[in-house]
Amino acid sequence: MADGTQILRRNQPGSRAKDFCRWPDEPFEEMDSTLAVQQFIQQTIRRDPANLEAILKMPEAQDEGVWKYEHLRQFCMELNGLAVRLQSECKPETCTQMTATEQWIFLCAAHKTPKECPAIDYTRHTLDGAACLLNSNKYFPSRVSIKESSVAKLGSVCRRVYRIFSHAYFHHRAIFDAFEKETHLCKRFTYFVTKYSIISKEILILPKLDDETPITQTVGESEA
């Protein structure tokens, strides 16, 4: 308020968790904050997480590098939810390697020299590494404009993140399906990396989630 009085929004006793973020939508052009892009993306997801076109439709005059960066930040934040669920059955004793199909073994880049890691450790290392990079003042000092050389670093993060989806799909299908039904996160991520040509289609080994038709299958061992 003009007199400096602070207004506090108080939740009423008995409020449900899903009601906590039910505030009116705000047009993007009226969002006056360095976090406007993040706010807009989260607002659109909250409105309908299944509407991929709306979520990934970039506002006019928006910097594309910042748009990609903020979406990747959002993917990583939401993917922590899948990582937590995987811990119930993705154990180092049972999932000793980060694999997708029997044709793919992924090496973990968190070590001095990339090497094999239990799948749950690979997942943690990948999300921790992504958080460190995306919060780096060296590469991403601003949330308003980003150098092209920094934007180029997003591709390697996307490839590693996609492997988490792949492992969950092929080895923990019930957990994957329950999480995907709620969030549509893998479908959104696949659409995102395809739309902006961040990952080559040869790497997209998951079936299309709407019709279960494999996109591609490739034999090999992949480093980070």
UniProtKB/TrEMBL annotation:
Alphabetized InterPro entries for the sequence: MOB_kinase_act_fam (IPR005301), MOB_kinase_act_sf (IPR036703)
Keywords for the protein's UniProt record, in alphabetical order: Kinase, Metal-binding, Transferase, Zinc
Pfam families per record: Mob1_phocein
Source organism of the structure: Papilio machaon
Residues spanning the membrane: none
Gene3D superfamilies: MOB kinase activator (1.20.140.30)
Protein name: Mps one binder kinase activator-like 4
GO terms assigned for molecular function: kinase activity
